[in-house]
């Protein structure tokens, strides 16, 4: 148990965060704000940066603590001591959030959300794998109303791609490491003598080519570090005097005077956090919810905005009842409906001799480790890459009998570790993500103890089963391709999943889909307010004059690929729209 005790020791050292420059000269509680933005995730940070460009006062409230070292984050293994990096800044450590042996990992996730949602600075971008795919036109044209269609977001897309560079070769020496699985996948997928092969492209240079194409995975990593909005947009925002970031501060609810948001009620959730009321500038200030699918849902309900039966349930909760607006001020909107996420299924083959990397042991490793030395010295080597490594990534577009196109993304990975493939073999795994075009939707609910719960997961709930058919079609052709390539060329290889004797359809029907952690859709955006709509194309909550939602909740269905770039583009577009609304409301 040496491993655990070293960790406990590290974690008991108090984190010193005095370098955080965000603390204001006077308390945010005692002034009024032109914009209060709630949540520092993929959307909240870019939005705060763009709105602060106007010179108006912007307060960004975040319930969590500092993740990246740049903002005071100090949680790190011993070998990162004395550097400006936290564990969250090192690409090779990203997947350790899934590794139970890292004591304290549970504190990364929002305790009041049943799904995996990150409650720290940066939100999902603070902890995620950094995969970054610019949106396709269909991502907007198939899901969003006029105002947020592809031609409307063209300039926003240009701005987002300028602020967030991407790479498929993150190591600063320009090399890729541990690649034999990735290259074997690439060779098999693009084998032109095999049935149904894929074309190899560079995903972010060929945005609309998503039918039987493969690409190396693309990441927003920069300079061998994590990168993303925390390393770009938040840096520029923080250079402005009219911008303040406040962490460890949870927004309980929006305070309303009928259809006007007057401010927010906040509760401190850690040292330095704020408790009390923070007001917006009367007559012109706006409150913007960027708290993610789960956070925004909860705040809206606690502000008396959502399905009447949900608010009714809250009203029977003694503490909440006293805080809710009077019943006649409730706004009945389908908040929490239209929940979307991509179901994952895991398939795989056993292949001998894959490169393997003991990424799980990096946490308790030391500076004698040559890879650690290389990383610290030159931001190069396996630690500058995501570990366990993934790639390539592929897309398949299937036309269903209902006339809809559905995009299935396949993530390919390879390796060998004790967790997944005991014994001597290696594995090559491929995971499906049923993305753009699928029609199944689910629903969120708030339980009596104020936990956000998934009342209905959005997986294969469509009555006629077209979502499942699309997955099966794509998986069938991919299996045939792998059977005609890897299984022929690699001695001793065999299918791990589906296992011998189990048919693909039987396997897929029996497997419980995993979440892709790509939740969207719960504050549905319409061109204007009406049936089924929560926000209009000005991002305003229906029935409110100065309350907005700008985050994954307003994206009506999953995009083609991992979604964070879409949320950044939505934030860039929302900034244009909100700036265009003018001062008074
Ligand atoms: C482990 C993991 C890996 C992922 N990998 C990828 C990937 O590689 N590529 C990709 O594209 N996507 C990935 N995603 C998904 C992506 O990170 C999210 O979809 C995205 O971050 C959502 O953006 P958002 O702005 O809607 O909300 P979030 O990024 O979730 O941000 C919401 C923020 O609001 C804060 N907040 C919530 N409630 C309150 C409150 N009441 N008061 C104050 N603050 C509050 C939260 O703490 C959080 O910081 C991953 C997600 C996870 C969880
Ligand atoms: C926030 O709270 C955590 C403990 O939950 C603490 O370690 C940290 O110093 C506080 N402040 C910031 C800015 O993270
Ligand atoms: C750490 O410092 C280096 C060198 O100054 C800088 O390039 C990098 O952006 C910093 N990273 C973080 C996370 O602060
Ligand atoms: C993968 O690379 C390792 C060395 O990094 C080598 O030992 C192994 O044989 C390679 N496997 C295959 C299947 O090429
Ligand atoms: C996708 O490409 C395949 C192979 O080229 C083709 O048969 C299929 O019709 C295409 N699907 C769509 C929806 O365009
Ligand atoms: C909240 O209630 C749900 C069931 O309604 C339960 O599963 C969960 O464990 C509870 N959480 C807490 C923190 O009490
Ligand atoms: C692979 O192809 C062989 C014939 O070469 C066939 O017998 C086998 O059923 C196929 N396996 C799968 C999983 O498709
Ligand atoms: C390419 O596919 C053909 C046909 O299935 C097969 O014979 C050949 O071995 C494959 N080559 C590789 C490198 O997979």
From TrEMBL:
Q: Does the keyword Lyase apply?
A: no
One Gene Ontology MF term: flavin adenine dinucleotide binding
| Protein residues bound to FAD | 251, 563-564
Which cofactors is this protein said to need? FAD
Pfam families from the UniProt entry: GMC_oxred_C, GMC_oxred_N, NAD_binding_8
Gene3D superfamilies to which the protein is assigned, alphabetical? Cholesterol Oxidase, domain 2, FAD/NAD(P)-binding domain
Which keywords accompany this UniProt record?
FAD, Flavoprotein, Signal
Identify the residues that the record assigns to the Glucose-methanol-choline oxidoreductase C-terminal domain, covering every copy.
Answer: 439-571
Family matches, as InterPro entries: FAD/NAD-bd_sf, GMC_Oxidoreductase_CD, GMC_OxRdtase, GMC_OxRdtase_N, GMC_OxRtase_C
> Hey, what's the signal peptide range on this chain?
1-22
Residue span(s) of domain Glucose-methanol-choline oxidoreductase N-terminal: 117-341
Which PANTHER family does the record cross-reference, listed alphabetically?
CELLOBIOSE DEHYDROGENASE (AFU_ORTHOLOGUE AFUA_2G17620), DEHYDROGENASE, PUTATIVE-RELATED
Q: Per the similarity annotation, which family is this?
A: Belongs to the GMC oxidoreductase family.
What is the official name of this protein in its record? Answer: FAD/NAD(P)-binding domain-containing protein
Q: Which organism is it from?
A: Ophiobolus disseminans
């Amino acid at each position: 148990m040496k491993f655990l005790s070293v960790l406990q020791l590290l974690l008991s050292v108090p984190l010193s965060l005095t370098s955080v420059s965000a603390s204001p000269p006077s308390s945010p509680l005692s002034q009024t704000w032109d914009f209060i933005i709630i949540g520092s995730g993929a959307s909240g940070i870019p939005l705060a940066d763009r709105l602060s460009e106007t010179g108006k006062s912007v307060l960004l409230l975040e319930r969590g603590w500092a993740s990246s070292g740049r903002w005071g984050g100090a949680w790190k293994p011993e070998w990162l001591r004395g550097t400006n990096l936290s564990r969250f800044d090192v690409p090779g450590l990203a997947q350790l959030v899934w590794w139970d042996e890292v004591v304290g990992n549970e504190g990364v996730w929002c305790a009041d959300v049943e799904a995996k949602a990150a409650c720290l600075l940066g939100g999902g971008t603070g902890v995620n794998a950094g995969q970054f795919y610019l949106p396709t036109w269909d991502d907007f044209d198939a899901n969003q109303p006029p105002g947020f269609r592809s031609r409307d977001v063209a300039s926003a897309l240009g701005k987002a791609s300028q602020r967030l560079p991407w790479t498929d070769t993150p190591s600063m020496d320009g090399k890729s490491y541990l690649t034999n699985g990735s290259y074997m996948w690439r060779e098999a997928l693009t084998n032109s003598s095999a049935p149904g092969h894929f074309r190899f492209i560079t995903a972010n240079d060929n945005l609309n080519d998503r039918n039987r194409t493969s690409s190396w995975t693309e990441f927003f990593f920069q300079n061998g570090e994590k990168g993303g909005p925390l390393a770009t947009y938040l840096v520029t925002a923080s250079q402005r005097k009219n911008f303040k970031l406040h962490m460890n501060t949870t927004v309980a609810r929006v305070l309303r005077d009928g259809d006007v948001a007057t401010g927010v009620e906040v509760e401190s959730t850690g040292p330095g956090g704020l408790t009390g009321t923070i007001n917006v500038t009367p007559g012109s200030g706006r409150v913007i919810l960027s708290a993610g699918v789960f956070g925004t849902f909860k705040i809206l309900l606690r502000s008396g905005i959502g399905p009447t039966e949900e608010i009714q349930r809250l009203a029977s909760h003694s503490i909440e009842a006293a805080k809710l607006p009077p019943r006649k001020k409730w706004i009945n909107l389908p908040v929490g409906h239209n929940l979307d996420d991509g179901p994952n299924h895991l398939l795989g083959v056993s292949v001998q001799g894959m490169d393997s990397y003991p990424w799980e042991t990096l946490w308790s490793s030391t500076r004698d480790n040559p890879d650690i030395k290389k990383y610290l010295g030159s931001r190069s080597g396996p630690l500058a890459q995501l570990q366990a490594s993934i790639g390539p990534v592929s897309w398949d577009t299937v036309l269903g009998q209902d006339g809809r196109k559905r995009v299935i993304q396949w993530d390919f990975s390879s390796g060998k570790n004790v967790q997944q493939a005991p014994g001597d073999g290696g594995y090559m795994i491929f995971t499906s993500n049923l993305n753009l075009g699928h029609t199944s939707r689910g629903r969120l609910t708030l339980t009596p103890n104020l936990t956000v719960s998934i009342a209905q997961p959005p997986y294969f709930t469509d009555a006629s089963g077209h979502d499942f058919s699309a997955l099966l079609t794509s998986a069938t052709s991919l299996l045939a391709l792998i059977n005609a390539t890897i299984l022929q060329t690699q001695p001793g290889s065999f299918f791990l999943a589906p296992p011998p004797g189990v048919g693909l359809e039987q396997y897929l029907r029996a497997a419980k889909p995993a979440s892709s952690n790509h939740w969207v859709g719960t504050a549905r955006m319409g061109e204007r307010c009406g049936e089924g709509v929560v926000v209009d194309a000005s991002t305003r909550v229906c029935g409110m004059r100065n309350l907005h939602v700008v985050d994954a909740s307003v994206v009506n269905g999953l995009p083609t690929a991992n979604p964070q770039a879409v949320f950044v583009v939505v934030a860039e577009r929302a900034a244009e729209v909100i700036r265009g609304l003018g001062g008074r409301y």
